[in-house]
Amino acid sequence: MSVHFEERSGVVPCRTPWGSWYQTMEEVFVEVNVPPGTAARDIKCNLESRHIELSVKGQQLIKGKLFGTTVSDEGTWTLEDKKLVRIILMKTNREAGNCWLSLLEGEYCADPWVQDQMQRKLTLERFQRENPGFDFSGAEISGNFAGGGPDFSNLQK
Fold this sequence. Notes:
alpha+beta; five-stranded antiparallel sheet; 17% helix; CS_dom; NudC domain containing 2
């Protein structure tokens, strides 16, 4: 579901020295720029539930403890056009309120504006899931969206 929502509404990337990362309710995407002509054999990528390590041609680009927990056996990486490594991590907590503040604990933090935009995006994604007949991809949101937005679960229908 989030793939179609992301295609229509775009992503909110957090820029880093090596590329960028962004997130949906379910996944965290890491895009690492590598030298053109890089081969898959030049890449060493280790994905665990709370750790990530990426080296290209012996140079370590990312290493550390992830901000949140992931499903380790569902993490994947691909080399695209011999110049971009794309890593996809599946979050264990897939709620709109689970907005990662950074990729690693204390590193590659989203600045306050990007963090705000990420949280808004996750809240709209949550609304889209709860209301599949509506299209929230171009919607604007204001007010209380921190922590996944307002809780309507106790309202009577």
